[in-house]
UniProtKB/TrEMBL annotation, chain A:
CDD domains: TM_PBP2
Database matches in Gene3D superfamilies: MetI-like
Protein name: ABC transporter permease
Main location: membrane
Cellular compartment(s): Cell membrane
Alphabetized UniProt keyword annotations: Cell membrane, Membrane, Transmembrane, Transmembrane helix, Transport
GO annotation, cellular component aspect: plasma membrane
Automatic annotation (TrEMBL), chain B:
Entry protein name: Sugar ABC transporter permease
GO biological process, one term: transmembrane transport
Top-level taxon of the source organism: Bacteria
UniProt topology in membrane: Multi-pass membrane protein
GO cellular component, as recorded: plasma membrane
Organism in which the protein naturally occurs: Devosia soli
Domain ABC transmembrane type-1 span(s) in chain numbering: 79-268
Length: 310, 283
């Protein structure tokens, strides 16, 4: 008995020992990947297909989902609120991305040359990046209040400029929300631009100086072209951020989310309300498919731009 | 032409005022950047009667608001929730993203490229698209209103995996081979030999994951309905909506949510900035 036990215990060990090194390594590799494969399949891929499927149903949490073809999409494209939301989302994107990138590049360009109190000034710009958008939404909301509460209107009235309605105006509310969104992301963009600037070999600058190029010419002919990978990364990163804007809008307009009159409502807030306020899960899923498509186009554009360079 | 621009260049080198102006503008811009934070802290130290006094330094600073806001224990609970969740998710990401990144960088096997592409492709799937299926999954499995329900979507990320893979590719194979000759098993080689060689990448990943989960709002807002399970951002949002026009209390809540990350930053500034640079350049 004892010897039989010993043999059967040795069995798997022998089997393992008999494998050659590369087979062993393949087994190790799949063992390492086992849990992650289950995770990515169950928590990323399966839900993705499920979202596409749900977008073709009328699921509302109460009754089982029924296939209704493209009815959700027809409803969405016929809904004026959807087009308003679509327009808002693009306004966040096409104003937010260029404005934040230009500001952060200018700051990074000059900050990179500053020696005196470099770390301190950099920290001032970087700190807002570490804040919570939900909390800062409320701080900015307070800033925008009318006199005598709001800081900005208080300042405006002290220099003789009439009060502005900011978040209460259909024309100003979207921009009033964009400012904190840009503000919160600047620090990250500045740091990444500075990293990109430092990655440019100094030999390029030395050669340019020998050729007698001025600051402006160096900036245009060397810095900006060589910074292209960094710029493309930041364009895509911040575009995706503005397309998915939610926290600021939700917290700055929480008494009438997306208001006034849907003038600030982005796509993600519409998705949230459709799904978790009206429980039209199928319809909300169709809206997420639209968001997915837009983000996919942005990502593919990035790949295209970067490939062209190589 | 060349001569003139050289002269211009030489001149701009000599003219110091340009640099002084640039430095001053940068400093002013930086101070403007932190103005919202300064006003937030300042107002959190004011009484409700002083809120309308817009001076930055409170006439009679008081911690009453903090005592009031922290007094009923809700913020303590939310703070605890956020900490547990952010720390757990960070540990999970450091472990799994590194393990997968290492496997994809250092092992030869059929299907490696497919797995890599599959994981990378999840970068293109927005969270917002997955929340409805996740919500369905959570309600069927009883994960609503639980730590696990808040955490499970972020336990691994394609971004982290990609970042770690890039760094493990830079680890020389000789070290790993030497360990193999010494008879170490593959798990030990990864954990004891390879991981210590990519510590900067690990800290970058940890910083990003922690910050991302600490400030996360969308999914925790959806998956939690019971106030005891709110994370700090969701708690601040609900507290502020309740407090309505008591701005000094709202600012105190916002300050409580902001102070921890600012403190961590002041302690680890150098590592955080370096980590963000690393992640941004490689990722």
């Amino acid at each position: 008995m004892a010897s039989a036990n010993a043999i059967s215990q040795r069995g798997p060990v022998r089997f393992w020992d008999r494998l050659n090194i590369s087979t062993k390594r393949v087994i190790w590799a799949w063992a390492f990947l086992a849990v992650p494969i289950i995770f990515y399949a169950g928590i990323r891929f399966y839900p993705t297909f499920q979202a596409f499927w749900l977008s073709l149903t009328n699921w509302d949490l109460l009754r089982p989902a029924q296939f209704i073809g493209f009815a959700n999409y027809q409803k969405m494209f016929a809904d004026p609120v959807f087009w308003k939301v679509f327009q808002n989302t693009f306004l966040y994107l096409i104003i937010g991305t260029p404005v934040s990138l230009v500001i952060s590049f200018v700051i990074a360009y000059y900050l990179d040359r500053v020696k005196l109190m470099h770390g301190f000034i950099r920290a001032l710009y970087f700190l807002p990046f570490l804040t919570t958008a939900a909390a800062m939404g409320w701080v900015w909301r307070w800033f925008y209040q009318p006199v005598p509460i709001g800081v900005i209107n208080g300042f405006l009235s002290s220099v003789g400029i009439p009060q502005q309605p900011f978040l209460r105006s259909v024309d100003q509310a979207l921009f009033s929300i964009l400012i904190p969104a840009i503000w919160a992301g600047l620090g990250f963009q500045i740091i990444i631009f500075m990293a990109g600037l430092r990655a440019i070999p100094s030999t390029f600058y030395e050669a340019a100086k020998i050729d007698g190029l001025g600051d402006w010419a160096i900036l245009r002919k060397i810095t900006i072209p060589l910074l292209k990978p960094t710029t493309v990364f930041l364009v895509v990163f911040s575009s995706i951020g503005f397309l998915r804007i939610f926290d600021q809008v939700y917290n700055m307009t929480s008494n009438d989310p997306g208001g006034p009159l849907n003038s600030t409502k982005p796509l993600v807030l519409m998705i949230y309300q459709t799904a978790f306020s009206s429980y039209q899960m199928g319809y909300a899923a169709a809206q997420t498919v639209v968001l997915f498509t837009i983000l996919l186009i942005v990502s593919l554009l990035q790949l295209y731009v970067l490939r062209e360079k190589k | 032409m060349t001569v003139t621009s050289t002269e211009l260049k030489a001149n701009s080198r000599d003219i110091r005022p340009g640099r002084i102006i640039a430095w001053t503008l940068l400093l002013i811009g930086g101070l403007i950047m932190i103005t919202p934070l300064l006003f937030m802290f300042s107002t959190s130290l004011k009484t409700s009667g002083q809120v309308y006094d817009l001076r930055l330094i409170p006439a009679a600073p008081t911690f009453d608001n903090y005592i009031k806001v922290l007094g009923d224990g809700r913020f303590m609970q939310w703070f605890l929730n956020s900490t547990i969740i952010a720390v757990t998710v960070t540990i999970s990401n450091v472990f799994f993203d590194s393990l997968v990144g290492y496997t994809l960088a250092k092992f030869e096997f059929r299907g490696r490229y497919f797995i890599f592409l599959a994981i990378l492709s999840t970068l293109m799937i927005p969270t917002e698209m997955l929340v409805i299926p996740w919500y369905l999954m959570s309600s069927q499995l009883g994960w609503l209103n639980s730590y696990w329900g808040i955490m499970f979507p972020g336990m691994m990320t394609a971004f982290g995996t990609f970042l770690m893979k890039q760094f493990f590719e830079g680890v020389p194979n000789d070290f790993l081979e030497a360990a193999r000759v010494d008879g170490l098993n593959e798990f030990t080689i990864w954990w004891k030999i390879a991981m210590p060689m990519v510590v900067p990448a690990i800290s970058a990943l940890a910083i990003f994951t922690f910050l991302g989960n600490w400030t996360a709002f969308f999914w925790p807002l959806i998956v939690t309905t019971s106030k005891e399970l709110y994370t700090l951002p969701v708690g601040i949002s609900s507290f502020s909506a309740e407090a309505s026009i008591q701005w000094e209390l709202i600012m105190t809540g916002a300050a409580i949510g902001t102070i921890p990350t600012l403190l961590v930053f002041l302690l680890l500034q150098r590592y955080i900035v370096r980590g963000v640079m690393l992640a941004g350049l490689k990722g």
